[in-house]
Amino acid sequence: AQKVTQAQTEISVVEKEDVTLDCVYETRDTTYYLFWYKQPPSGELVFLIRRNSFDEQNEISGRYSWNFQKSTSSFNFTITASQVVDSAVYFCALSEAQQGAQKLVFGQGTRLTINP
Amino acid sequence: NAGVTQTPKFRVLKTGQSMTLLCAQDMNHEYMYWYRQDPGMGLRLIHYSVGEGTTAKGEVPDGYNVSRLKKQNFLLGLESAAPSQTSVYFCASRMGVVSNQPQHFGDGTRLSIL
């Protein structure tokens, strides 16, 4: 069975600090996809990034970066120079790749609060 | 750009009542999904559809039924609501051409069962 663990339930930092959100996953599939979604206080879910299991390149998008390490089954998310607008709940999710249905398995989420 | 629209946004029901949640997407997506979000548990998949006229069970399907009579609509029904079904419900859709395309989510429906 697939499982995603986000051990950090809540994180609180001061603006401009760097913060890393951890995501550890379990799967028996050899090919799979990993995702990060953001849920701001308004409640909607916003797609941030997708990573294929066969692509271990790290990715940077502005202040956001993602570190995918297949050897440790982790897909961590770092926000550099955090801003108050980054305050949200962040979800890591996993899906199998073979069957095509993309049935997402979500972690419990990490509530990030950026204090001014 | 409407994207994924959920109706209603809020609803309060009494135990035993029935209701239907509507999800409509205007992106011509093949795949549609219903999730529920409970505190401390993330989102869990209830049912999904890989195309018009098809539905399949997800992780937590008990107590729910779904229908996909039209490609753009995916309905979630509660035949006899129970307090355990109090939750925030999210609908999502995605293109079916490539399986790694991200899902696009609606704004959610907050449902309370008294």
Class derived from helix and strand content of chain A: mainly beta
- Describe the biggest sheet of chain B? 7 strands, mixed
Helix-strand topology string of chain A: EEEEEEEEEEEE
The chain-level structural class of chain B is mainly beta
Overall geometry of chain B comes to globular
> How would a textbook summarize the main sheet of chain A?
6 strands, mixed
State the shape of chain A.
globular
How big is the Rg of chain A? 14 Å
Number of strands of chain A: 12
Q: How many helix segments of chain A?
A: 0
Helix percent band of chain A: under 10%
**Separation, N- and C-terminal Cα atoms of chain A:** 41 Å
The average pLDDT of chain A is: 93
Tell me the helix content of chain B. under 10%
Radius of gyration of chain B: 13 Å
Give the CA-CA distance, first to last residue of chain B: 35 Å
Quaternary state, please?
Answer: heterodimer
Give the overall pLDDT of chain B as a whole number.
Answer: 93
Notable traits:
heterodimer; A: 116 residues; mainly beta; six-stranded mixed sheet; four-stranded antiparallel sheet; 0% helix; B: 114 residues; seven-stranded mixed sheet; globular
Brief characterization of the structure:
The complex is a heterodimer of chains A (about 120) and B (about 110). Chain A contains no helices and twelve strands.
Description:
The complex is a heterodimer of chains A (116) and B (114). Chain A is built from no helices and twelve strands. Chain A has strands spanning 3-5, 10-14, 19-21, 24-26, 32-39, 46-52, 59-61, 64-69, 74-79, 88-96, 105-106, 110-115. In chain A, the strands form three sheets. In chain A, strands 2, 5, 6, 10, 11 and 12 form a six-stranded mixed sheet that branches. A four-stranded antiparallel sheet of chain A has the order 3-9-8-7, with no helix packed on it. By secondary structure, chain B is an all-beta fold. Chain B has strands at 4-7, 10-13, 19-25, 31-37, 43-49, 56-57, 65-67, 73-78, 87-94, 104-105, 109-113. In chain B, the strands form two sheets. In chain B, strands 2, 4, 5, 6, 9, 10 and 11 form a seven-stranded mixed sheet that branches. Chain B has a four-stranded antiparallel sheet with strand order 1-3-8-7, with no helix packed on it. In chain B, a hairpin with a 6-residue loop joins strand 5 and strand 6 (56-57). Chains A and B meet through strand 5, strand 6 and strand 11 of A and strand 4, strand 5, strand 9 and strand 10 of B.
